[in-house]
Amino acid sequence: MTAPVIAPVAVTAYQCVSAAGDDVEALHAALVANRPCLQPPRLFELPFDTVVGEVVSPLPAIRAELRAYDCRNARLALKALNQGGFRAEAERAVARYGAGRVGLVLGTSTSGIYDSELAYMHLLRDGAMPADFSFMHIQTAQASAEFLHRELGLEGPCYGISTACSSSAKALGAAQRLIAADVCDAVLAAGVDSLCRLTLRGFHSLQLVSAEACRPLDAERRGINIGEGAALLLLERATPDNASKPRLLAVGESSDAHHMSAPHPQGAGAAAAMAQALRLAGRRVEDVDYVNLHATASALNDRSEAKAVASLFPSPPPCSGVKGLLGHTLGAAGAVEAVVSLLALEQGFLPGTCGLQQPDPACPCPVIAAPRLDVAPKLVLSNALGFGGNNASVLLEAA
Amino acid sequence: MDRMSLLGYGVCAPDAALRETLPFAASDIVREAIPATLRRRSSAATQLAFSAAAAACGQAGRSPSSLPAIFASVAGEIQTTDLLCRELARPEGVVSPNAFHNSVQNTAAGYWSIAQQCTQPASALAAGHDTFAMALLEAWCQLACSGGELLLVCYDETWPAPLDPGRGEPAFACALVLAAGDVAGRLAHIGRPERGGAEFPEAWRAMAERMPALAALPLLDLAASGGKARAVPLSAAVSGWQARMNCDD
């Protein structure tokens, strides 16, 4: 092991609301059962057939003082905050370090645009946006970050990162740097994205949306499914006090410099991001026990990423992708799948690849179809690769 | 790291009236900064960002292909998003594939990395009225953790009227090339962004509240004038983000 470039941080709490259910226990159960959670959209109608990873349980109301932030995205974030004691852990960090030393970085692709779409229908019908519509509080990439920041009374730095599907993986990197640079003692890193017409109809226009449940890495795949979710991770400086908690070691980042909506065909950017994560953490490829693939079930993306793994690892570890279970949660995917990886580390299993029947021979990495409950990984890479050739790879380690 | 070095900066202000009031040089959109293949189909946001970024790299004498980049914008590709939202509000509305992938917040960052053949990380962030302040803080953290140099670009095109009447204009972009620690040839030192009481200049406050990218004006003013060490405000909002800046030593 070489010396790490960046100090690891402890993940002292994490929570997730997704199509698999309202908390990490529900997500864990779905992962172990390899149970698809996709169904036709209920939130709005579409002029084509697909299934989505929708959160169908009720979302909490935003309190009156913060009503300007009220949108589906903020409600998803609030629902995750209220699950399983996460809010109490965040409040403990504020009490311990002081509100000014706790920051918040949130990754999202489309923020509250679902509610903007409704406002535009109002505009077309009545000639004006709804009176209570607030662009800065709902639609901007920082809106739901600022909502959570105010909901928790934080006074540290607060911003949104929006680099398409790598957004919240990069938010984890930014959050780690805030602690490593001694700007903060704790940072809430989040990924939140909600279903909206823009992404569903946009990906459909790119002919990427599958009518049926998606089949990542499968020879017969027919495209992607969109999902939604909110994942929250509380990061704190690593100390002996939190030695029983898993560690975020590093986030590797790179650009393909190739194409706006297609990945580098050989996966050069994805390989660079994974290599960078290992370099920053002072670890070797041989140390990695499992790779949580981005694996969207688009043929170009799957093959590019598999080639990246094959080029980086002389002997690749088991790989899998969970979008056949949850759908692609876009800007939230990096944080959602960091939570999936943390569950793998803490519960001792490897997730399967829901929907995989016939592995694509053009994907040269060892993909596992069914979950493996007999393997306890210690070091996991989780990839998030996005539009604009924007790549991030998150390296997490068991306590 | 106790300070970073400002190696160069660039400013793009297409509004001629604004350019005349600025105490430093600013350009209109620079066609040569945008690759020919992008000129027709790129947004004002992307063109603004490219114009300022190219000028900053030029002044710093740095090749853009080697610099990690932070692109910061309150509203991103908001004109494209507005058009898409109008289409989506109609039952028969059509979403074009190009408009869709050009609507992401990291459109400028993505095209920049492609145009410059830069495989370094490129981020895209937003923080409302604190967008410039948080971008400078993100730059600080990247340099403190990894050293080296980077490009910071803060930009916003004019926002479409229905979204935020009375705000989001005039369009503006600025770019900074920053290095960790002391670097020969620096224009200034900049300290860690922090909370403080530095007052935003009254002359610019109303305009910067309308267009948050203009929160960079006090820092650019000091960089251009070479004034004495002081704390410069990084936000026109009440959040109090500031950084100490020194052009003397």
Automatic annotation (TrEMBL), chain A:
Ketosynthase family 3 (KS3) domain location: 1-398
Example GO molecular function: 3-oxoacyl-[acyl-carrier-protein] synthase activity
Keywords annotated in UniProt: Transferase
A GO cellular component annotation in the UniProt record: cytosol
Transmembrane segments: none
Pathway: Lipid metabolism; fatty acid biosynthesis
One Pfam family per UniProt: Ketoacyl-synt_C
One biological process term in Gene Ontology: fatty acid biosynthetic process
SMART domains assigned: PKS_KS
NCBIfam families: PRK09185.1
PANTHER family in the record: BETA-KETOACYL SYNTHASE (PTHR11712:SF320), POLYKETIDE SYNTHASE-RELATED (PTHR11712)
Family (UniProt): Belongs to the thiolase-like superfamily. Beta-ketoacyl-ACP synthases family.
Name this polypeptide is given: Beta-ketoacyl-[acyl-carrier-protein] synthase II
Lineage: Bacteria, Pseudomonadati, Pseudomonadota, Gammaproteobacteria, Methylococcales
TrEMBL record, chain B:
Classification via InterPro entries: Ketoacyl_synth_N
Record domain Beta-ketoacyl synthase-like N-terminal: where: 27-183
Pfam assignment, any one: Ketoacyl-synt_2
Origin superkingdom: Bacteria
Protein name, per record: Beta-ketoacyl synthase-like N-terminal domain-containing protein
Annotated source species: Methylogaea oryzae
